[in-house]
């Protein structure tokens, strides 16, 4: 059997009980490279970590499939361990389809995505009556490093961007175009390394974010949150 398990944002405290049980009872765990050692150490069986470095993502993904399929053909209980939630920008659906082509139906165990955990751990509510009655989660990178379909601004909505650090220098110029309509002074926050001991929360506005990110040397992983909710609980501890 094979289960796609969401590992959450990287802190073992945020693993679900189901994820922990799957990790401890698996014969084979095939994990994403960015997962921290504290999560990987929970694997009860053999551990294979994907070598997904820049420029070889496709090759690494094929190695992941090969490792999982080898375990399945050997009758092993396989866990495919993925950061965040497998179905939130995690290629989980692609992996389900690939395993199905080989006659294996993958079970999916959701994890806590950084799009939810990042704002929450920074004291930023995604919704608040009278401030934001909906939120949008989008990637800042399209397929093959193209631009995504950028969202249009709505005043009572929160916008969460994942994988957006490299886009910070141009984010203001993109989103303030007439077709997207984001206000230049819209409050926003960057949550860097959510749930980790070195978590950092930076608050700014859309027109100032590029300068702030450069001065503060913002690095991935980070979640970008745009909207009035980023300031409504600003006195809360980060």
From TrEMBL:
Biological process according to GO: methylation; siroheme biosynthetic process
PROSITE patterns, sorted: SUMT_2 (PS00840)
Does the UniProt entry include the keyword Transcription?
A: no
Q: Which UniProt keywords apply?
A: Methyltransferase, S-adenosyl-L-methionine, Transferase
UniProt domain Tetrapyrrole methylase: residue ranges: 2-209
Q: Which family does it belong to?
A: Belongs to the precorrin methyltransferase family.
> This protein is called what?
Tetrapyrrole methylase domain-containing protein
